[in-house]
Input
Amino acid sequence: MADDHCQQSRGSFAAFASFAVDSLGLAAFLSPNMGLFTKKSFDELQAEAERGLLRRSLGPWNLTALGIGSIIGTGIFVLTGTAASQNAGPALVFSMIISAVGCAFAGLCYAEFAAMVPVAGSAYTYAYATAGEIFAWIIGWDLILEYALSTATVAVGWSGYFVSLMHDIRLDVPAALAGPPGSINLPALAIVLIVATLLVIGIKQSADTNTLLVAIKALVLVVFVVAGASYVKRANLTPLIPPNEGEFGRFGWSGVLRGAGVMFFAYIGFDAVSTAAQEAKRPARDMPIGILASLAICTVLYVCVAIVLLGIVPYQQLMVPDPLAIGIDATGLTWLSPIIKIAALFGLFSTMLVNLLAQTRIFYSMSRDRLLPAMFSVVHPRFRTPHLSTILTATIIGLASALTPISVLSQLVSIGTLLAFVLVCIGVIILRKAAPDAPRPFRTPAVPLVPVAGAAICLAQMVGLPAATWERLLIWLVIGLLVYFGYGRRCAVAGRVLRTQPEA
Output
């Protein structure tokens, strides 16, 4: 009798434990298959790419222009002055080089993944293939914040140049419509909605428009360098590394590191290229070209523009929203100032185009995996674009840009990008071990040296960012985990297949 009683007790306890585990969503932790770490196989990703609904219409020129369109934007036209005046001084050139080296290593890792896994979603998709579903969710959630805030930040920057240009031609925008505090930033809201309309109409039309805008702004930056080079003063570039002011990140080498973290915002362009892999004509060949070519071209332009700008204007005077226009005004070439502002409008427009494109493609991939509601992967029957996702995202971003100052919007962008880059670099090493025989049309050289170096440089830049930025990132990630366990995990395709498998 005692044995029967113990057997019944054990049975009751087992039933209760099973109920509690299922109710609390802990089965994934206790499953022998570790549902939280469910991975997408390489074959699954290839099949998803082949049956994709998105139109394959982008060639290497379009992809390179997409990258340049995102990289040459806020970094050159807005953040260069901020990082120089607050963090690095003339040593901002070193900050740019540190960011560029980290991006080059990460770009080589991105290129291998993009050629192997030509599916929309960028680092999210790569994490799903290498680290598992929970890490893919964290990266995807992180990228949602990154691209949304990037687009909103650039929209506010675009508005600043637009208002300045209107003032130059004596068409002043009313203060009540020019941005917070105490007002609504109507130009920022309007430009986000215009970009969204272009993306809904079609990716090929958007890419062609972006290519034209990129050509214009790149040409104007070259003109700025050539025209301003003869006005550079050696005194403005010395000391090359201003002494630290007693606070981490305020000049000195810590300021160089902090400046690298700030300027990293401007290098998210090649990451955005990889989100369009499912719309590339020949992704195995074209994705590495687009990623690496855009990064190389932009790095050269960045360094040249920074040297000329800091040589013309003392870095202490560059805490302004339009540093390039200030630089041209200092030369006396007043005829070039409106051209620079117009180029900035083009440049920032193309940056918004790429960032909003990337945002909606992340939503598309996560929705296809059932981690987000199905509406985010609905494709327009005529335009073959995720129109509902684009419209909803643009509405939220537009309101954020209309009501929020640029200083608040820009704080989280760099750290989110750096986190994604770190995981992509690590993912290359993992996948080389897990799937050594998988076809790799492009191979990252010197593995594991290149991925380890890329991850280390990106981590160093993350350490250089303010503690408040880390706190906001952690809060956002906690919210994301609540959404994941409350909705995403239960609806995910991979998780559903795993839970319906018969027990061994």
Summary: Residues 1-34 have pLDDT under 50 and may be disordered. The radius of gyration is 24 Å. Residues 429 and 448 are 6 Å apart (CA to CA). The chain has 21 helices and no strands.
